[in-house]
Amino acid sequence: MKANHECIVSLAHVTKYFDQSRPVSLWKREHSRIYALNDVSFVLRRGEFAAYAGPNGAGKSTTFKLLAGLLRAQQGQVKIFGADPCVKRIEVMRRTGVLFGNRSELWWDHPVRASFEWKKAVWDIPDDVYLSNVSRLKELLDLEPLWNTFSRELSLGQRMRADLALTLLHSPELVLLDEPTLGLDVLAKRRMIDFLKLANQELGVTLMVTSHDMDDLAEMANRLLLINRGRLAFDGSYDALLRMTGDHRLVRLTTSAESPVPEGLTLVDRSGDRFTYRYDGTKIPSPHLFTLLAGIPGIRDIQMEPENIETVIAGLYRKWFSEGEADYSSKG
Ligand SMILES: Nc1ncnc2c1ncn2[C@@H]1O[C@H](COP(=O)(O)OP(=O)(O)O)[C@@H](O)[C@H]1O
Ligand SMILES: [Mg+2]
Question: Ligand 2 center to residue 261 CA distance, Å?
Fold first, then answer.
């Protein structure tokens, strides 16, 4: 769906910290303050599909907890549909679906359908809305075969699909998904991402999805928000990010050749007959890479993968430093 100008989520200069105190001796305690979010601002408009990405501990879940009204920021303003989620929690949550991937809302010792019936009753979802949503979600997420299975018997991928359907049951306009692809295998991940795109395009749902996996992002996002150590490090399209940092990828070769170094590739690791190289996908497109690799004799295996998110973020900072634009790392 095309984004319009209606502002669905806004964070304005939001800072959230946690104070901790731990005993260092019998009489003394050590106090420390962790900034989970440090002066974060962004706006999400109706119809957008944003990936909220960053390494573990970056502040992603904290952001979602603030949006869900589960935590309160010490500074700045958090708004959903123009309201403070801590003040108007029920109104806001009627229009929002939130899923924390590491926590299931399904009733563990009941068939999957029981959780849906329960939510219908508690949320007072009208019969017609319930029936039409259940039938659509069952079809889109292939839930029919699981409908009478006990939730505890589901695989992780099945559990995520059922939880996602439950999150969407009350036709939310905004859906916040915290690490919905965590731990899923390639196929299950693919399915999840395809479904989310569909939910965005066909059902018009505004989506914000977190991930710590660089792999997921190119797939999902027409907008990418990168967060690192509580600060927003990047806000733009995936292509714009690659233009800034380069499309860094790794390729691993297992070969009997002696120290092959194809042109344009940098050797970053070697263990035995396994060689790991880094290259820039914007400079060496895949067909060119295959030609280069074809020149190496005795190859037994080739694996390619995107560089991890920490390295991409480090690349961004290096670029900023060299351009003197910002000095993020010394502020956090
Ligand atoms: N309840 C809490 N008490 C203390 N520190 C916390 C709490 N929740 C989160 N943090 C800290 O805040 C930072 C951000 O955490 P989080 O938002 O969970 O990151 P992410 O979801 O990106 O992995 C981390 O350093 C984490 O340890
Ligand atoms: Mg998290």
Answer: 39
- The pick from 11, 15, 18 for probing ligand 1's pocket by mutation, whose C-beta has the most ligand atoms within 8 angstroms, reads 18
- Name the residue with the closest Cα to ligand 1, atom 2: 18
Round to whole Å and give the CA distance between 306 and 246.
11
Higher pLDDT, residue 48 or 298: 48
Per mean pLDDT, which of 20-29, 90-99, 189-198, 323-332 is the most reliable? 90-99
- Into how many domains does the chain fold? 2
Q: Do both 222 and 290 map to the same domain?
A: no
CA dihedral 62, 137, 186, 193 (to 10 degrees): -60
Q: Supply the range of the domain harboring residue 248.
A: 244-323
Taking only the tens place, the pLDDT of each residue in 15-38 is: 999 999 999 898 999 999 999 999
Residue nearest to atom 24 of ligand 1 (CA): 57
The residue type found at 137 is L
Q: In this structure, what token pair is assigned to residue 67?
A: 């949006």
Q: Does any ligand 1 atom lie closer than 6 A to the CB of residue 62?
A: yes
User: At 319, which CATH number?
Assistant: 3.30.70.250
